[in-house]
Amino acid sequence: MRRAICSGIMAVSAILFIVMGILVTMFFSQIIDNLIYKELVLKVGGETYEMWRKPPVEPQMKIYFFNVTNPREFLQGEKPIFREIGPYVYNEKWEKVNLTWHPNGTVSYQPTKTFFFNQEMSYGDESDLVQTLNVPLVSAVEQMKYAIKLTRQALGSMLGVLNQETFTVRSVREFMWGYNDILFKLARDVMPPDVVPHDLFGLFVGKNATASDGIFTIATGAKSKKNYAAIDNWNGITKLPFWQSDKCNSIVGTDGTAFPPELTPNTTIHIFNPEFCRSLPLVYYKDVVHNGVAGYRFGPPVTTFDTPATNPDNACFCPPGVMERDGNCGIKGLFNISSCKFGAPMAMSWPHFLHGDSKLVEDVVGLNPDVNRHGFFLDFQPKLTIAMQATARMQINLMLSKVEDIKQAVGLREMAFPLFWFESGVVKLPEDVSQKLKMMAEMPEAARTGISYSMFGLGGIFLFCVASMIWKRMKSNSYGAGGVNNADVEFEKGTDAVTVHKTNGKIRSTEESSDFPR
Known about the structure:
The protein is of the alpha+beta class.
């Protein structure tokens, strides 16, 4: 009886362990993932929140200037010869400030970046001199491109009185953080404050330790992980006012510091940066591995800055009136941002005109595009879509035109004139963050495998024990059923003899006495 009960308990246990192993195999990873995703939700006091608000990374920005070595010859018709100087390296500190939480599952904030010059990693000092075009002058000239002759002559006379030259020589510090420019001051005096908000002219004026990028409102992920960190609005708007359709004006994606989880090679993600004047798409490039953690490399499609002829989706990015006036929408490899830069003749491209029309490189001397040095990419751990490495690279160019009747514009012609390019990002994560990421990436699968194998193993052991007990019981029963019924047994003990015979189904016993007394 005890053996039967024991066998039953072991059989039930075996079934339970096997069922549990199946359930663990099917649902354990999903349960753990849901717990992890729950921790991703942005909320005060959470570890993810603190990492999002003040990232524990060491980002850097590197600036490379295009120094013109033959300004006079260029104005006489020769190709401009550039000598790239740099990098000038700045350590960055990122922080989100002025946070406001909303009941609809969103949070508003202002991103800030603080820059610190890194002398040791830089090519030279911020006092190094760079020779390039006088950007305020060229911008003023371009504004008069379609003005009447008298107006253009008046501008030329004014520029002469102000001793304005076509080229200028400034220090890296001045180009970066600003310098006094008489044309810029005049523009500030006559234009609205929001058009010219600063007293100095420089590439990064007003961007050091300020909230100049505006107010972002994003989803916290509390309602859905699918829209985690997605931008709800920027400065209170969901569409930009610069382009020809809602599709190009739409503000979609994230600010680039967080992304929805569960990234796949078929996913297209977007980054919105006010300086880009658009949302930038990122697509899968290839698989990568960082510190033992597998991931995906994403970057912009090579057709991102193509003309509508090869990328019809870019038709709505054509500035108003350009197609009608010029009969085309620019040249492959350039993204005209004059519409969102108050008419300044500026265009973005990848560094050294990577993926651009060959004419862009042929018009100058000293540029050599290389996808490894000039590409834009982010490497993600796909489960959480956390960037393990990020390198954003962009080049800023002046769009030149031939303008008559202005002395200072003589020699300028239709071309893209590169000013500088930069890269910003994170080369690697801190060791403790990298280890946490590796644990979160590997732990669920390792735990699922270990637990499921344990369940299946215990279930198998119990089944084996039950099967063994049943086999022994069957063997015992088989032996007992045939012990007396099937044999003639003769048993002798001492001098006594007992003979058992089976005759016609009846048992007959014969006892014989020995010769010795009992």
